[in-house]
Design a protein that fits this description.
alpha+beta, four-stranded mixed beta sheet, 13 helices, 4 strands, 68% helix, transport, ATPase_OSCP/dsu, proton-transporting ATP synthase activity, rotational mechanism
Length: 272
């Protein structure tokens, strides 16, 4: 995202958080706003001319704000409309980045509802586990990225898998991610988990170990990584015996390979 869009998104997040902070029913408003923002993204996705007009830099902010009022006011709550007006009034680098910003705001709104309900840690964990399931279940992931399938069909497929197994907010976030992906379903849902952790003031470390880690080992690892990255850490672990020993740690795009298999691979490469 370019600088202008990052600044616009920052102001929109402040608007969203301020609006929810003043609400007399913040959980309801946050959940409603999140769902409605996703619906608005759907409208923009289906109407390229409208999508371009909302981000058109040659028209004034008030003109763009009036456009979103004309289109969306009859269909969304006052809270959602206030966020849309803020977004439309500001300057975005491209229509695509404005759309990305609206998706981010919708996600944050739903995660804010989870936080207020004391469910944010659960949602973060469920999203992470779902990303791992999709990584393991190649057939399901292929169906979710099928370009010939409609967003509605993808949502229905994933909803049938998730039904009764996760919280309502986790399901809503996951269905949005597969219906209108930014990257791919695995990546988008993993990013959602990371966003949930960030809202909790934490960073996600994905740890693959050759053998299960004890609670004490996980606490020690969390403390060590916290010192390295300067943030509190959420540790998600899984076992892969093919590593032979040690572990592989992934934090964002960074990989720390301390596994025996990794060391042997580097030794073989050095001797080749």
């Amino acid at each position: 995202m370019h600088a202008a869009s990052r600044d616009a998104l920052g102001r929109a997040i402040s608007q969203l958080e301020g609006m929810l902070g003043r609400s007399s029913k913040p959980v309801v408003d946050a959940a409603e706003c999140g769902i409605e923002l996703f619906d608005c993204v759907g409208v923009l996705d289906s109407d390229r001319a409208l999508r371009v007009a909302v981000a058109e830099a040659s028209t004034s902010g008030p003109q763009r704000a009036q456009l979103v009022r004309d289109v969306f006011e009859p269909h969304v709550s006052a809270s959602t409309l206030s966020v849309l007006v803020q977004v439309a009034s500001d300057v975005w680098s491209t229509p695509k980045e404005l759309r990305t910003g609206l998706v981010e705001l919708g996600r944050r709104s739903l995660l804010h509802a989870a936080k207020l309900e004391g469910q944010l840690e659960r949602v973060e964990g469920e999203l992470y586990q779902l990303s791992r399931i999709l990584e393991r279940e190649g057939r399901l992931t292929q169906l979710l990225i099928d370009r010939t399938a409609t967003p509605r069909a993808k949502r229905s497929l994933l909803a049938s898998v998730l039904y009764g197994k996760v919280s309502a907010i986790t399901e809503a976030l996951a269905l949005q991610a597969v219906a209108r992906p930014q990257e791919g379903p695995i990546e988008d849902i993993a990013r959602l988990s990371e966003l949930a952790a960030a809202i909790r003031g934490m960073k996600v470390a994905r740890v693959t170990a050759a053998a299960p880690l004890t609670d004490e080992q996980q606490r020690t690892l969390s403390e060590q990584l916290g010192r390295i990255y300067g943030e509190k850490m959420v540790i998600h672990t899984e076992v892969d015996t093919s590593l032979l020993g040690g572990m592989v740690i992934r934090v964002g795009d960074e990989i720390i390979d301390g596994s025996t298999a990794g060391k042997l691979a580097r030794l073989r490469a050095a001797m080749a």
